[in-house]
């Protein structure tokens, strides 16, 4: 599904966009996912017509019939990506082709229509060009992009839908964690799991996140920032956080991360970190790692750093791990050397401030 788009996007300008002065006030402290830009991208699909009616249109509500299939059977997928302001004032996307491929991987798993990768990419490009003034100029600012698709057919039969609506919305973003924490604490859930073999763990679908919310609420009650999930079969192996992948750095300079196997989301930031670490000569392993190993290695000093990574939070150190009847710290409970090195390099590439040897940046 890598064909170029054969649809042209019609442009419908917003009749009353947010005034520049009001927009600048918002961009001074946008938070994360709280406000949205003036426009959105939209494309429709039906089994008889294929993909059609592509447009950039004013951001606004979607009218839905109560029998719309997504409301009953949750055929829904999404992506998370960012646009960045470059030092010369231009804008860029980071590895958008990888998001396009993963979007279709999710679509196949959820029995949904696949979106031509060229159409995905063009929808994102067109929206960023239309709303580039919404990219915050503050340190760490970016334009968070949310492509998503859902079953829009009005029908209550239990089957894959024959109609879908694809949209892209954009939200100016500052830091993901409140207060810009130098490290986060995580709660190891013993009662809830995120995904099981054969399930939807590798798909970026809303149901995975809905299932994680009760465990995230538990983590917050226990004074932690995030929940970390263990495998569903043995409740022993570390998998990922509610929305981020995990890495572990040891005293010999090597690094490991849980392997992909259908229960872990194949993060694009995860893949980028693996590439950058190997470029730097770091010995990297993708292998199972248990909660007991994590605890023992932290106590012995063998484990020096743990960090989480994802599009929204980029690279975030994990300083403390809690669970039922235990708590342990990692290193100095703050950012470690390799964590900082990888984060600095990755952010530098994303923002056009460092060499891009792999051609990850697409300038718009």
TrEMBL record:
It is an enzyme of class 2 (transferase). Keywords: Amino-acid biosynthesis, Aminotransferase, Branched-chain amino acid biosynthesis, Pyridoxal phosphate, Transferase. GO terms for molecular function: branched-chain-amino-acid transaminase activity. The modification N6-(pyridoxal phosphate)lysine is found at residue 204. Its cofactor is pyridoxal 5'-phosphate. GO terms for biological process: isoleucine biosynthetic process; L-leucine biosynthetic process; L-valine biosynthetic process. It catalyses: L-isoleucine + 2-oxoglutarate = (S)-3-methyl-2-oxopentanoate + L-glutamate; L-valine + 2-oxoglutarate = 3-methyl-2-oxobutanoate + L-glutamate; L-leucine + 2-oxoglutarate = 4-methyl-2-oxopentanoate + L-glutamate. Acts on leucine, isoleucine and valine. NCBIfam families: ilvE_II, PRK13357.1. This is Branched-chain-amino-acid aminotransferase. It comes from Stakelama tenebrarum.
């Amino acid at each position: 599904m890598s064909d170029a788009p054969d649809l042209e996007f019609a442009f419908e300008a917003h009749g009353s966009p947010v005034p520049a002065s009001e927009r600048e006030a918002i961009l001074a402290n946008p938070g994360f996912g709280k406000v949205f830009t003036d426009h959105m991208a939209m494309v429709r699909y039906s089994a008889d017509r294929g993909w059609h009616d592509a447009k950039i249109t004013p951001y606004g509500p979607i009218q839905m019939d109560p029998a719309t299939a997504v409301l009953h059977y949750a055929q829904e997928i999404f992506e998370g990506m960012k646009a960045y302001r470059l030092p010369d004032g231009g804008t860029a996307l980071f590895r958008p082709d990888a998001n396009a491929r993963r979007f279709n991987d999710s679509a196949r798993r959820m029995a949904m229509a696949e979106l031509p990768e060229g159409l995905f990419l063009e929808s994102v490009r067109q929206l960023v060009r239309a709303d580039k003034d919404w990219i915050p100029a503050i340190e760490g600012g970016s334009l968070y992009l949310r492509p998503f698709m859902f079953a829009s057919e009005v029908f209550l039969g239990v089957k894959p839908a024959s109609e879908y609506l694809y949209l892209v919305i954009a939200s100016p973003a500052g830091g993901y964690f409140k207060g810009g924490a130098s490290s986060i604490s995580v709660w190891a859930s013993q009662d809830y799991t995120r995904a099981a073999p054969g399930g939807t763990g590798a798909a970026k679908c809303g149901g995975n996140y809905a299932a994680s919310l009760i465990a995230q609420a538990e983590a917050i009650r226990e004074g932690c920032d995030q929940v970390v999930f263990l495998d569903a079969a043995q409740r022993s192996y570390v998998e990922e956080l509610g929305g981020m992948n995990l890495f572990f750095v040891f005293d010999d300079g090597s690094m490991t991360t849980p392997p992909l196997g259908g229960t872990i989301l194949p993060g694009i930031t995860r893949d980028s970190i693996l590439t950058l670490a190997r470029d730097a000569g770091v010995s990297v392993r993708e292998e199972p790692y248990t909660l007991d190993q994590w605890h023992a290695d932290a106590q012995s000093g063998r484990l020096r750093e743990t960090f989480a990574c994802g599009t929204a939070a980029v690279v975030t150190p994990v300083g403390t791990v809690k669970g039922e009847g235990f708590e342990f710290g990692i290193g100095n409970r703050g950012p470690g050397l390799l964590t900082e090195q990888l984060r600095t390099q990755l952010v530098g590439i994303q923002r056009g401030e460092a060499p891009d040897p792999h051609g990850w940046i697409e300038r718009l």
